[in-house]
């Protein structure tokens, strides 16, 4: 959905962006101090480019580091989601890892009643998360099976960092469930292909590595499963984000609920 910023490192690699590079004699041996200086200049140029536009710093740094959390991205996208959905966000369900943290942040918003569903076991949850689970605000359930909620229980459902671990076999079952329990639509936040490396911790917790799929793959899958994009919400979100120069680190798909 969103476009990645152009890479400055490619321009730096050929020497065009580094001052005084043309004046160096290729046959002479560069001093260690000069080499260090050139590296520092290049680093400063990259950092300056990253922070040159509002909303770009977080996205660009995340892609450079290769460590992206779509659950953390929800807080960044919240102002634009409010523009897109308005009163449709009054009762919201978040599904995904770190759901306790997401719900805690969303609950601070006066006009949002936030609930959560953690799709994986919480072995190392903190006191706040245990409290939310004890109160029933956050549940722990396997999303490969029917969700433990009645139809239209929530105005909006947001799922992040969870569908990337499901095979198409289970996506066929889970996506209709997201549409069933929501009344005003659901959002999918998914990573870009090649965005993250598989970690050993992920394998032990989720049982399989993340499958980061392209936007074209998702669109084909939506068509095959007869799920419709919420074009009105998509346009409102993109217009609000463009005004502030916001660029998401994740793919965001706005989908309709079951009619």
From TrEMBL:
Transmembrane segments: 33-51
Key word Transferase present: yes
UniProt-listed GO biological process terms: methylation; pectin metabolic process
Annotated keywords: Membrane, Methyltransferase, Transferase, Transmembrane, Transmembrane helix
Annotated GO MF terms: methyltransferase activity
Gene3D superfamilies: Vaccinia Virus protein VP39 (3.40.50.150)
PANTHER family hit by this protein: OS01G0144000 PROTEIN, S-ADENOSYL-L-METHIONINE-DEPENDENT METHYLTRANSFERASE-RELATED
Name of protein: S-adenosyl-L-methionine-dependent methyltransferase
Native source organism of the sequence: Helianthus annuus (Common sunflower)
């Amino acid at each position: 959905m969103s476009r990645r910023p152009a890479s400055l490192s490619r321009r730096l690699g050929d020497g065009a962006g580094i001052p005084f590079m043309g004046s160096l004699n290729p046959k002479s041996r560069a001093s260690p101090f000069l080499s260090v200086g050139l590296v520092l200049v290049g680093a400063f140029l990259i950092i300056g480019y990253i922070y040159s536009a509002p909303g770009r710093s977080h996205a660009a740094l995340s892609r450079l580091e290769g460590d992206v959390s779509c659950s953390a991205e929800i807080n960044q996208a919240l102002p634009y989601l409010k523009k897109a959905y308005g009163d449709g966000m009054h009762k919201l369900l978040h599904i995904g890892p770190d759901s306790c943290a997401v719900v805690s942040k969303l609950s601070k918003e006066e006009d949002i009643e936030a609930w959560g569903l953690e799709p994986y076991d919480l072995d190392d949850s903190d006191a706040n998360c245990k409290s939310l689970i004890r109160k029933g605000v956050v549940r722990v359930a396997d999303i490969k099976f029917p969700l433990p909620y009645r139809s239209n229980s929530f105005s909006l459902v947001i799922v992040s960092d969870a569908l990337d671990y499901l095979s198409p076999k289970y996506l066929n079952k889970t996506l209709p469930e997201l549409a069933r329990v929501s009344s005003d639509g659901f959002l999918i936040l998914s990573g870009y292909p090649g965005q993250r490396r598989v970690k050993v911790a992920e394998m032990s917790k989720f049982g399989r590595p993340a499958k980061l799929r392209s936007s074209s793959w998702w669109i084909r899958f939506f068509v095959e499963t007869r799920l419709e994009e919420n074009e009105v919400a998509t346009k409102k979100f993109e217009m609000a984000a463009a005004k502030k120069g916001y660029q998401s680190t994740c793919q965001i798909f706005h989908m309709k609920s079951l009619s």
